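Quick one: structure tokens for this chain, please?
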Amino acid sequence: MAIKTYGLMGVDWEERVNFERLRAERLARIKKLLRASEMGALLCFDMNNIRYITATHIGTWAMDKLARFSLLPRDDEPIMWDFGSAARHHKLYCPWLGDDRSRAGISTQRGAMSPESGRAEDVAKKIRIELEERGLLNEPVGVDVVEMPVLFALQAEGIKVVDGQQLMQKARVIKTQDEITLLATACMMVDAAYDELYRALRPGIRENECVGLVNKVLYDLGSEHVEGVNAISGERCSPHPHVYTDRALRPGDPAYFDILHSYNGYRTCYYRTFVVGSASQAQVDAYKYCRDILDRAVNAIKPGVTTADIVKLWPKAEEFG
């Protein structure tokens, strides 16, 4: 196979995912793009962007809080602010952050901490101090996502805020060797989940039971987060509702699934469609039609091709109803 997968353990007799190289190449990539941009620094609140830059992670429970933040000044190293215990953990176990670049400090947690707490102003002051020390206060600061009180506080400190999200997108869109391996490994786990799911499909099993089965397989294999499992069957298949129910599968039902999970921060959105029991001729014909469309798309993919180019190979949406 063109894309390799390995065992999940670290061993001394084979190079697998090289995490030191992964961290270094990601950081070097965003540093280069930042240097070439109009921005003097990049401030991130999105945990995926923070992880890309700092290689820190405290669990997916914090992903929607916007509490943690990192600052990457131009031509300098990233600084990480986190919950106090997490900041201490990073100091102990993330030597790539150095002695003084893992610090305690959080934002408003999407408004859970009242304006009177002064959290937004505290964040802005911390950022201003770092920019002043480096002579960057008059340079634009790219921000990926931000709470409105924090945005206003940054502006009150004289900081010009610009869109930093697209810079992060540009950095992350091209994957390194180790990122590709991690993506393939995440897919390997879903392969296993689909095999177990196929064996379990029968009349009477419910969509939610399928979701539970997939979660168990993935977590047993080492997934760090099962973001979602779309389990859709029978008449629910069109239009796609994007959520499972307790509907019981019936003989002849189409049943399709989309498994979204993360392994070391690298995610899947991996669909498969099955028939419960025997397929009808109409289902066989539909499968052949869809397979032809997908094969044409796969064969057209090469460096430089966009999703807009691929869509031109497909029937128009109106043809699907």
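The chain has a mean pLDDT of 96.
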